[in-house]
Amino acid sequence: MRLLPASSRGHRSRRSPGRQQLAHFKNALAKVGLPAGFRTHDLRHSFTSNRLADGVALTDVAMMVGHGDFRTTARYTHRVKEKWGEDAKLMEATYAAATAKTAC
10, 42, 47, 100: least CB-packed within 10 angstroms? Predict the structure, then answer.
């Protein structure tokens, strides 16, 4: 089951949003303060990156977004590396704070 259909690579198809859907999307962007240049593909990219960062298996995410080859999904793993760095910094800060309290 695909949660997010694959892009149509610039060609209009049944999966491409129509003018009315794009108008609703642009109105929603304005309401939440996102830039006008934000695209529906940006949501797809965020979904994919966040699922991988959450630890969902690469092959499962590939299936969710409709990638025929998991190597396409593997391009999104940069977010996982960023998250690991953020988590490591948080753990270091927590450890430093805990050891500072016990040293007093």
Answer: 10
Segment holding 20, helix H or strand E: helix 19-32
| pLDDT of res. 76 | 83
CA–CA dist 70, 91 (Å, integer): 31
Residue 30 to residue 26: CA distance in whole angstroms: 6
Q: What is the dihedral sign for C-alpha 26, 30, 34, 36?
A: positive
| Boundaries of domain holding 75 | 19-103
Query: Is 6 part of any domain?
Result: no
pTM: 0.56
Per the structure, the count of domains in the chain is 1
Are 64 and 51 a contacting pair, CB within 8 Å?
A: yes
Long-range Cβ contact pairs of 36-41 (< 8 A, separation 24 or more): 41/7
Spell 28-47 as b/e; 16+ CB within 10 A means b.
eeeeeeeeeeeeeeeebbeb
Nearest to 83 by CA among 49, 46, 45, 41: 49
